[in-house]
Amino acid sequence: KELKEKEESLLVCQQVCKHLQEELAEKERREEDLKRRTGRSESELETLKGLLSQTEQEVLMLKQERELLKSRTEQLQETLRQKVQSEDSWRDKLEMDLAKGEARHKEAILKVREEARVELELERQKQQELITKYQREHEELQQKIPGLISSATKSLRMEMEILEKKLQDAQMKVAEKDGDKEKEIQSLKRLISELEFQLTMEKSNNESFLDKLRKEIKHKSDELEKLTQEKTQLIHSLSQVQEE
C-alpha cells in the first residue's frame, strides 16, 4: 500500500513537473517573440530616420539649385546691361563717323573749289548732287538709328521678360518643392515621434511584462526545483520501500 501511494505521488509529481516545464517553455517563447518584435520596431525606426535624413539632403540640394538659378539670373541681367551699354556706344560711334564723314566731305568741297575754279558750275552741280546724296544717306542713317536702337532694346526687353518669367516659374517650382518636402519632413517627424512614443510605451510594457514573466519563470523554476527534489526524495523513498 505504501509503495502504491509513493508511485501515485511520483506520477502526480512527474505530471506537475511536465506541466511546469511546458509553461516555462511557453514563457521563454513569448519572451523571445517580444524581443524579436522590439528589434523589428527599432529597425523600422532606423529606416524612417534614414528616410528623413535623405529628405533633408534633397531639400538642401533644392536650396542650392535655387541659389545657382538666382546667380545665373544675375549674370544674365548683367549681360543684358552690358549689351544695352554696347548699343549706346555703337550709336555714339555711328554718329561720330557721320560727323567725320561730313567734315571730310566739306574739306573735299573746299579743295575742289580751290583747284577747279574753271569748272566751278559743273563741279558745283556734281558736288550738289553728291551733297544731296550724302544728305539723303545721312537722313536715312539718322532714321535707321532709332529703329535699330528700338529694335535692339525691344529684343533685349523681350529676352529679359522671358528670363524673368523663367526665373519666376523656377522659383515657384522650387517653392512648391520646398513646401512638399517640408510637409513630408513634418509628416515623417510626426510619424517618428509617434513611433518613438509607441516604441517607448511598448518597451515599458514589455519590460514590465518581462519582469513579471521573469518573476513567474523564477517562481515556476523554484516550484520545479522543489518538485524535482520531492521527486528525487520520492524515488529514494520508493527505492527504500521496494527494498523493504
Automatic annotation (TrEMBL):
This is LEKR1 protein. It comes from Cardinalis cardinalis (Northern cardinal). Residues 113-180, 210-244 form a coiled coil. Keywords: Coiled coil. InterPro entries: LEKR1. Residues 27-47 have a biased composition (Basic and acidic residues). Residues 27-48 are annotated as: Disordered.
